[in-house]
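User: C-alpha cells for this one?
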Amino acid sequence: MQEFNDLARVGALLQWDHETYMSHRGAEARARQQATMRVVRHERLVDDRLGEQLDELAESDLDLYRAAMVRNLRRERDRAARLPMEFVRRLALAESLGTSAWRIAREEDNFELYRPALEEIVAVKREEADLVGLDGERYDSLLDEYEPGMRVSRLEPLLGDLRRDLGELLGAIVSSPRARQPAAEFIGRSFPDQVQWDFTVRLLADLGFDLEAGRQDRSAHPFSTTMALHDVRVTTRIHEHEPFDSIFSTIHECGHALYEQGFDPAWEGTPIAEAPSLGLHESQSRMWENIVGRSAPFWEHYCQPMREAFPDVLNGVTPEDLYREVNRVHPSLIRVDSDEVTYNLHILIRFELELALMREELEVVDLPAAWNDSYERTLGIRPPSDAQGVMQDIHWSSGSMGYFPTYTLGNLYSAILWDAYAAQDPQAASRIGAGDFAPLLSWLRKNVHRPGYLYLAEDLVRNVTGSGLTHEPFMRYLWAKYGPLYDISR
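Assistant:
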C-alpha cells in the first residue's frame, strides 16, 4: 500500500510542476514521464499476487480499519484490472498532452487548436467507461471513480430538483430592485499583487493550514495536491483588479488542504488516509469558502485587516459593504467567479454536456455551440468567445469526466455538515466573527478528516449528521442568506 501511495504521489508531484513551473516546451517529455509512472503503478496494481493476497485477506477476521484498507484497495484493483496496459499508457498520454493543448488554445482563444486533443480524450474516456463496464450506463463508470456508489439514475433527479429550486431563487433575486444596485466603488481599482499574496498567506495560517507542512504557489487554474501528509500544496491566482478572486481561491483550496492535513497519521500511505469521494472533499472547500468565507461574521472580522492591507482603495469601507459585494448575485460566464446561487447551474450545464458526450448524443466538434446554447438557455447569457466558454475549465483536458457533479454534491454535503456543527455549537457564528476557526476545524477533524475512507461518503455524513444526501438543507441556507440581502421570500 505504501508503494502504491508513493508512486501516486510522485505522479502528483510531476503534475504539480506541470501546472506551476514547467516550461511549455517540456510538455511532451512530461507526458511520457507521467505515462511511465501511471503504467508502473498500474502494473503493480494488477499483479496476480496482489489479487491473491486481497482475496485471502477478504476472508480474514480483520478490524474495521484493515477491512476498509482491503476493501478500498480491492475496489481500485478491480477497476484497474479491466484496463489493458497499453490503454493506460494511451490514456495518460492523452491527458497530459490534452492539458498542454488546452493551455495554449485557451491563451489564443482557438478551439480548433484544442479540438483534436479533446476528441482523443473523449474517445479514450468512452473506451474506459466501456472497459470498466459497471451496470447502468456508460457515464456511471466514470462517475463512480470520483463518487463511489453514485449513479446517473440517482444523480439526475437530485440535480433536477436542485435546478428547479435554484431557478425559483434566482428568478426572485433578479426581479428584486436590489439586484440593480451598482457594484461597490472599489471594484475594478488596483489591489497590488504582492499585498494580495501576503493577505492570502495570512488567511491560510488563520484558518489552520500548517505552513510548515505545505506551501502556496500560483497556477492558471487554482488547485491543491498532496505529496505526503506533511507536504500539502495549494495554488492561487492573482489579478490586480480582482482581489476576491485570489482570496476565495485560496480559502477554497485551503479547505481541501485542511482535509489532506487532517488524516490520521497512523494510516498515512494507506487507502483509508484519503477522502471517500470528491464530493465529500469538495464539501470541505465549499464550507470554508462559502459558509464561512462569505458570511457576515467573517467580514466583520476581516474588514479592518483588508482596510489596513489596501488603505488607498478601501478607506471608509464597512463590513456590510464587503459582505454585500462578495455575495452579489449576477449570472456570469465563468464558473470559478460565479456566486453561490448560480454556481451549481454552471455545474449542471457541464454535467448535461458530459452525459451527452458519453451517450454519443453530442460530438466534440459541436461542443462549443452546445455550450453556448446551454448558457443562453440556463443563465440568459452567451459566451463571446470559446476561452470564456467551452475552454474555461481544465477538467476535460486532463480527462476528468464525471468529476463536475462532485462540486455540486460538495455544496449539498457542506450545508448538511454545517447544520450539524452549528446545532452543537450555538456560538458558531460569533466564533467566526472573532476569527476563532479552531472549534470548527476541530469538529471537522474528528468527524470528517480523521475517519478518512472508512465508509462511503454518504454513510459517513449520515453517521455524523443523521441525514443522507438531499438538496433541501442547501436551499434553506441560500434562502436564509439571500432572502435578507435581496429582500425576497419564498
